[in-house]
Amino acid sequence: MVGTIVDDSRGAPLPNTVVTIPDLGRRWVTDSAGVFVIDSISLGTYLMSIRRVGYEAADGNFTVERSGSFEVSLRRQLPDFSSRGRIVGTVIDRSTRQPVAGAVVNVVEAGRQVLTDEQGGFAIQELPAGVLSLSVEMLGYATRREPISVEAGHTTSAQIALAVEPIELGPIVVEVRSNYLERVGFYRRARHAEGGWRWTEEEIDRWGTVFLSDVLRRAPGVTVHRGFAGVRVIGRRGCRMTIYLDGIRMGRGFDLDEIPRSTVGGLEVYQGVAIPIEYRGFSSRGFSSCGVILIWTRW
């Protein structure tokens, strides 16, 4: 049986779609043409599950009566946050660099106002995209009013320093983040994980590499072998590293260079004790003990 997964609206093939038949414990990943091949399957009806990032999940009965081909269309899933953004940040004392709790943070155009917590942190959700006016007030400090850019579907991170005396200050430090990467823990691991290597889409684009395997060559202890059977990535232990695509573990036959570089929003590499606990193997000699590669797409 030969199956093809396509986009519902455009009819375009959808590569890197994960197709599973749970009853048989079998899984396939579509190739660059959106095609996967089911071989050695008995006649009968099975539950089929289809998953792809950015598309609605598809689950249903699949009946095998004879060999042939079929096509499944997936409908694109629009995230709820596609037209809105948010601001998260920290308010600190300019001199001591300590957090300022209880400061009033106000986005004038949106009429949204919050107080900073004990760590000086704040978050303002569901903001319209565009350049907004952010003000911060706290008794004993000079009020700060600064323009800040909010992008749809992204998180703007800001660190705001308050001065006791009304003196000229430097600009607010702003970093625009992907909401998706924040949800899957990319930035949290960047802040707290010891060891490992991480690259954002901006860094990957800046290097201008053609294949993801070329980016991985930048990680110490990682060796990339490219051959007729695809790309193999070897860790410092001399064994093959495990690849996760948007949190789903790929099989050994998966070729990461089939993923267009332009669709990648973040890339992480971990080996040894630096491997995040949720991606470690089930034993000390498990598949993931050789190291893991986490690929996150843009959406």
Describe the protein's architecture and organization.
This protein has helices spanning 179-183, 186-192, 201-207, 212-216; strands at residues 2-7, 18-21, 26-29, 35-37, 44-51, 58-64, 69-74, 84-93, 104-107, 112-115, 121-128, 130-137, 144-150, 154-162, 173-178, 197-200, 223-227, 230-234, 242-245, 248-249, 264-270, 292-297. The protein has 299 residues and is mostly beta strands. The protein has three domains: 2-74, Carboxypeptidase-like, regulatory domain (Immunoglobulin-like); 84-177, Immunoglobulin-like (Sandwich), CATH 2.60.40.1120; 184-297, TonB-dependent receptor, plug domain (Ferric Hydroxamate Uptake Protein, Chain A, domain 1), CATH 2.170.130. The strands form six sheets. A five-stranded mixed beta sheet has the order 16-21-22-19-20. 22% of the residues are buried. The model is unreliable at 283-287 (pLDDT under 50).
- What top-tier CATH class of the largest domain fits best? Mainly Beta
Second CATH tier, the architecture of the largest domain: Beta Complex
**Shape, principal axes of CA atoms:** elongated
| CATH homologous superfamily label of the largest domain | TonB-dependent receptor, plug domain
